Amino acid sequence: MEKPTESGYEVFLSFRGPDTRLDIADYLYNSLIHAGIRAYRDNEELPIGEEIGPELVQAIKQSEISIPILSKGYAASPWCLMELVQMVECKEKWGRKIMPVFYNVAPSEVRYQTGSYGEAINLHINKRRYTDETIQNWKVALSKVGALRGWELKERGKGEFTEEVVRKILIELKKNYLAVSNCLVEMDDQVDQIMEKIGEQTTGTKIVGIYGMGGVGKTTLATIIYNKLSADFDNCCFLTNIRETKIESLQNQLISKVLRMEWPSINSINEGITEIKKRLSSKKVLLVLDDVDQNTQLEALVGQGECWFGRGSKVIITTRNEEVLKDVNLKHELTEMDFNHSLLLFSKHAFRRDHPPAEYIPLSEKAVEICGRLPLALEIIGSFLAGKDRKFWVDSLERLKTIPNKKVKSKLNISFEALEPQEKEIFLDVCCFFVGFDVRIVTYMWDSCKFFPEYSLEVLKQMSLIKIVEGNRLWVHDQLRDLGRDIIRERADFKLEKQSRVWNHDEAIDVLKRKEGTENVEAICLKFDHQSQCFFKKEEFARLSNLRFLRVECGDLDTNNIQHFSLTNWFRRNLPIPPNLRWLSLPNFIQHFPSTNLFLRNLLILSELKWLSWHRFIQYFPSTNWFRRNVLILQNLRYLSWHEFPLFYQLTAFSHMKLVILDLSRSKITDNWEGWNHLKMAKNLKVLNLTECRNLRGTPDFSSQENLEQLILRGCPLVQIDRSIGKLKHLTLPDEMDELEALTELLVDSTSITNIPEWKGMKKLKTLSAVACRSLSVCNFSGCLTSLLTLSLDNTRITELPFGNFGSLVELNLSNSSIRELPDSIGKMKNLRVLRMHCTHLRKLPSALGMLEKLEEIDAGNCRNLEEIPSEIGRLTFLRILRLSDTIISEVPKLPESLTNLYITTRSEMRLPDLSNLLILRVLELGLMSGTLFHTAPSLHWIGGLRKLESLMLCCHSLATLPSDVNLLSKLRKLDLLVDKLECLPRLPQNLSHFRIFGLMEKSIDLSYLEKLSKLEVNNCEQLIEIQGLEHLKNLKYLDIESLPSLVKLFPDSTNLKKLTGIWILNCPKLVEVRGQLESLEILYIMSCESLEKLPDPLSFKNIEQVLISGCWKLEEIQGLEDSEYLKYLNLRNLPSLVKLPDLTNCKKLELLNLVNCPGLVEIQGRLESLERLSIYHCGSLQKLSDPSSFKNLASFYIGESEKFEETLESEEYRDLKKLARPTKEIGRAIRCAM
Questions:
Q1: Is beta strand 790-792 parallel, antiparallel or unpaired with respect to 767-769?
Q2: pLDDT tens across 1037-1052, in order?
Q3: CA 103 – CA 27 distance, rounded (Å)
Q4: Exposed/middle/buried for residue 367 (C-beta within 10 Å: 0-12, 13-18, 19+)
Q5: What DSSP element (H or E) covers 643?
Q6: Cα–Cα nearest to 954, from 937, 984, 975, 932
Q7: Helix, strand or coil for residue 349?
Q8: CATH of the domain at 20
Q9: Which residues pair with residue 68 across a beta bridge?
Q10: What pTM was computed for the model?
């Protein structure tokens, strides 16, 4: 598979027509188109047994994002499943995104193929139209896509849902275009030059400085270098926003990131220098310092480089000021981009493609010149102009042209002025205070201020004014940050007392001391160190009447001697709290809470307190009521340790959003403690310590803690572990679980455990399930679990089992594990009744199987490399079920007479086994795929002796004859004959209810004697001219006729099949007529029957609900629809001879009408008051609707290539209908079979 070239499409939409074509797929496709997103949706059905075409594969390859709409019937379509496989392959090879929509199905139903998805997969398996490998690929793709995060559409409105999807798609597309790869072509030479200077493979420490004007791309270039080098470094650190950050904080970040641990606060620059030298001198470090503006920053962070870091370290510095690099030997100047690459970058943001459309080339070139070929300006202005009309472009460029090239910020201001007021407020907040902040936290404040943050942030991102980077952190370019702050100053006429935001500490002190103007302040930041002595009066804070954000940084305060800092007395004296205050930020300021009478009425967030620990219930801790009044506190709390936690307290006071470690050791909590419900919010919890919680008998519901890695249960008298433990994907099983002597069931399904330790104390454990633990490779419980009844290790990486004394084991499941061989010790499992394998690496079964006297079921299906079955299997006198599907066995030994169900499918040449002794066999599936099999094997002479058979499937491409005594199988209800060369069909058992024949060579068959038949499928019988006796099948409900190229007619005139409800007729090119009176018919599908002239009697349409007729070139009319009061879907395609339709007024339930390529149709008659979807395409003679005013419920109307009707739409009578019409240029891909 070659890597796709430049995208022709941005989004690929995959869906199944009958479920969603004129429903959510229609809404979503048109919303994407209207948003300017190039979306692709396929417009053909997949011919049976064929692969999807190269055009469709290429569309999937080219699309940046694929959206499969996973409806209930999605997996029933091979077409959809093949698309899904392609999507997964593109995701894994090239990082394409898949964003699934779960449409009335649960993600788990898709992931694990249960419900309708399991039924569909089984149906594909049974039909044998696709190889086992193909079906396995489908299952893998469904599992992978089902595990992805997507949208669940249940009771949500379609309009609201599609708007959300389109917004997310726009953001994702924007992300793709803003990735550093956009500039890789332009920067290749720059990258090579720096890589040469820095000495990629050298062992010496190198420091390189990149300098250039703001917005020229220094950070992008540094990021590219960082990405190229990071794979060779264990210790990497990228420090951003250096100009705005205190040196001590930068030193702390450097040590913390390199050592990958939280480092204590650094109190002085000299202390930081000492710690860096001490801790990092032996480390090979990759370090980027972005936006350095002072020599002191370099001296405090890297010193002399080689002296501070280990050999081989690399340091990259970016700065606007070359003077900062005076002591750096390796320098690289970055200048503006050349014109061609500037145009390319501009086009990516303005048009989301590499080149502008022809009509926009002159304007785009003009824009590039005006932007001065600076990447930042190109990005901002390109995003600003995206999607605007030509007049807007001309006016905007004229405005930009009047601003000198050097005034880049003034050019960027044009994007700011285009924002709505609330969007401007958020942008200014970010520029002044929130660069690097978690957007999820800041949103609380903005939402309370009615700034509509969700929508506003998306607008800002689409206009490239802000970005949300890793960790949900807000980021703006330094030039945009400066622009925002300049706007604040300009709005205040450069008078400090008029500023709405004050971010500088000295200026903030000045504002607080003023007697006038403080009512203008909305947000303020104070930064104190341990030597600060600043006293505030009550009136000074009282004047901040409009303050909504207050940040007081006291990172260096001695919390044991905090009384000297007068701001603390603010709490103690209960000074008035600003009434509009939403956010109070006090990093490392207090560890003891104020008295319980503190009342912060409007406070939403008290942040930055990162560690809180106390043992026993402390008296001075605030009451629960205090927390209820001051909600959403402790937003940054990561670690909560509270030993001997009281039962009556419920943890309702705390925000659990960032909680990582929770230690409730020796607490009084019980199974039904109400606090468990509140802990469900702790989505990021990784460690839960419940040591010696003596009242705990069972574990809580872990379904919300999917990131939990350590669960400590030492000293807990547990008797039950909740099933939800299976959702903990990162859990490590603790050794202390060995102490759970009363535990009877342990389920750790779908977790990331790597081994199961040797538990010797769990003597009562009966069930151990580790299903889908894909990292599990070691089991050490040999002989310890003496009461174990059920052991499930399917879908693990277990390669061998240390079987010991498992004499009690009843069921063992090893399916889809990495087991290569079963040990002989398996023979000691004397009570084993069920053994399931499905192991692709397994080559043979041990002879010790013959010792398992109680074994009732062996499932070795899908053991694709299984070659050998031991003869000892014949000793298993209780064996009832034996599955050997999809193997390569070449011989089957004599099987035990106790078998009731036998499934054998092999790809090797195998002598047909003699099964004459299996007299109680009820189900037999025999798939012998080798073409030479029956030429060397004996006949099926024994088949007539299996009188208990209820279901028989024979699949063999070379089977030429079938024994005549097959009709003696009086209990047979289901018969599948999948052959290619069967010369003659013998008389079949009269009690058959399901019969499928594939590949018969006869010209005529008579089935009149099969009066109990309810489902009949006749496929790929090339010489079959007629099927006699259908009129006598009075119990027939479903008839499926496919690929019978010689069939001429179906049903005689007298046919009166009272129970027939569904007919599917596909690819019968010589079929002339379908006769009969079929009064119970509900579904009629007829496709690719080019000679068809006549349909069943008009009375057959009385109860019809769905009609699809396509590719019937000679069909002139469809009688009977005028009385179809239950008809919901009418889909007529490629009917060139059809000249008229009956009056559809009585079709009171008709929701969908599709007319495609019906060039002779002149008029649509009737009042269609219930119609919701109407499509008209290539109907050149259609001129009118008999009553255009009747379309009261019409929600979607497609029209294209129908000239006369398009002219009719211009009349006043059709005005309302025209408003719904989709553009004619889009209709080509809008029409597809709706069923």
A1: parallel
A2: 999 999 899 998 888 7
A3: 13
A4: buried
A5: strand 639-643
A6: 975
A7: helix
A8: 3.40.50.10140
A9: 14
A10: 0.49
